[in-house]
Amino acid sequence: MRGAIKGLAFAALIGLFSLAVADPAAAEKRIALVIGNSAYQNVTRLDNPRNDAALMADTLAGLGFTLIGGRAQLDLDKTAMDVAVQNFGRQVQGADVALFYYAGHGVQVSGSNYLVPVGANPTREADVDFQMTDVNLVLRQMQGSGTRLNVVILDACRNNPFGARGLRAADGGLAQMRAPEGTLISYATQPGNVAQDGSDGHSPYTRALATTIKQAGLDIFQTFNQVGLAVKRATGGSQQPWVSSSPIDGTFYFVAPSAPASPQVAVAAPPEQPLAGTLRPDPDRVPIKDIALLRELSDRLYEHNFDPEPLDSKNGMRLAISKFQEKSSMTPTGEATEGVLTRLRKLDDLKPWGSIVYGPDSDKWGMSWNHNSRRAAVDDARSNCGVAKCPIELSFYGARCGAFAISGKSWSLVQRESIERARDAALDECGKGGKACRIIGAVCADGSGR
User: Fold this and answer.
1) Could you tell me which residues come within 8 angstroms of residue 48 by beta carbon, excluding any fewer than 6 positions away?
2) DSSP annotation string for 180-195
3) Would you say residue 61 lies in a domain?
4) Is there a domain that residue 268 lies in?
5) Using CA atoms in the order 142, 147, 149, 153, what is the torsion angle rounded to 10 degrees?
6) Same domain, 19 and 168
7) How far, in Å, are 357, 363, 393, 394, 405 from residue 413 at the CA level?
8) In this structure, are 66 and 139 located in the same domain?
9) pTM: predicted TM-score of the whole model, two decimal places
10) Pairwise CA distance, residues 258 & 23, whole Å
11) Residue 358: pLDDT above 80?
């Protein structure tokens, strides 16, 4: 399933030590399982996953990865997929880096993500566990293996091929998963959305990924950020990849930075520096100047409901950062620093999300609930506005609830800790306009209270 959504956000923590040396392919044991399913027997065939998997297998092999089966595994049925994943689990024991790549149909059923073998033909939800491969099965094969980094890449976001059969997908696209320790999960597009298969032999995501990972000196987070930007440009902004990560100990390079040339002369060894001299400066004082990192900072603030106020103010971002700093017991300087971004990266993903949006000029409104991210909730709510903009937004998460009240001359959007309090507060706020108001929409983030 693949599609359109605005924004690009990454969930990842930068480590302090380097896993890379001058030749990481020689120094590290890298294991990869690459699967591409195109020749589906009971649902829509796909043009590009075979090509995408072959391209990724060749690229990874050139970067020092040992491939399970010696090459890309193509058009696997359920039994073959289970065997491949099990072999992967065995061979990653004691490896430094484990990477799993999948291209093909993927579906979200009851909040879990499944990869679809070529022979799958479920007629009811109860068939799913027996006919498809749960992504969590792959994650479990990596856990406890002793690897320092696990990477899961899912170019598997095409439209649900079983939707007409009554299989209940919680949303379009794949659901966001919590990355286990030392794991990075990359989606071809944001959770809950669909992405493009591509019309030139490769998907936009895999084409960008295969090109980017060959660039020297990009750490893993820079790599996937560059992939996201490339896909955004290639699709005119209609597809924007997503990364979810747990804290990762170390900096991983697919291709290490080039060592600077040095003259071949004998020199005396420099005196050993005291430890304090090698420490990085206080990250709370190190400003961020990289545009991609500033974009990430902005997106992470947004996903934690720290919005610039006023929205059109040049100082709006400083105010949003100041609010976050106050909540995090930092000095509210408003400065975009590495310390602010690091703290945001450490925060857990917030969910569930609900949203109510309103367009005063068009008198259109929309409401959504039970989404894995704020952006997904807002997009769902705004889908009810048609061509109207619905620029006014109230988003809430966890146990919070929102309510929308309106009269002939005023309106209010309010969130509170219960649906009753949200309704009462919305009516009170709206009623300040002098006319009796009514609730036209109210919901808690988990969908209750409607």
Assistant:
1) 38, 103, 197, 198, 201, 202, 203, 206
2) PTTEEEEESS-TT--B
3) yes
4) no
5) -30
6) yes
7) 9, 14, 8, 6, 7
8) yes
9) 0.54
10) 10
11) yes
Give the whole-angstrom CA distance, residue 368 versus residue 371.
8
Q: How many Cβ atoms from other residues are within 10 Å of residue 55's Cβ?
A: 23
Which of these three, 346, 364, 380, is where a domain ends?
Answer: 346
Does residue 168 share a domain with residue 132?
Answer: yes
Give one DSSP letter per residue of 275-300, joined into a string.
GGGGSPP-GGG-B---HHHHHHHHHH
Q: What is the pLDDT of residues 28-53, one digit of tens each?
A: 899 999 999 999 998 888 889 999 99
350, 359 contact by CB (below 8 A): no
Domain count across the chain? 3
State the amino acid at position 417 in one-letter form: E
Residue type, 299: D
288 Cβ neighbours under 8 A, 6+ residues apart: 294, 297, 336, 337, 338, 341
Domain that holds residue 400: 353-444
The number of beta carbons lying within 10 Å of the beta carbon of residue 28 is 21
CATH number where 303 lies: 1.10.101
CA distance 343 to 301: 11
Write the CA distances from 391 to 5, 39, 158, 223, 405, integer angstroms.
16, 43, 29, 33, 16
178 lies in the same domain as 120: yes
Contact 221, 15 (CB under 8 A): no
Do the beta carbons of residue 347 and residue 324 sit within 8 Å? no
E strands, 248-377, are: 353-359, 364-371
| pLDDT tens, residue by residue, 162-197 | 765 556 544 456 777 777 888 999 988 876 555 455
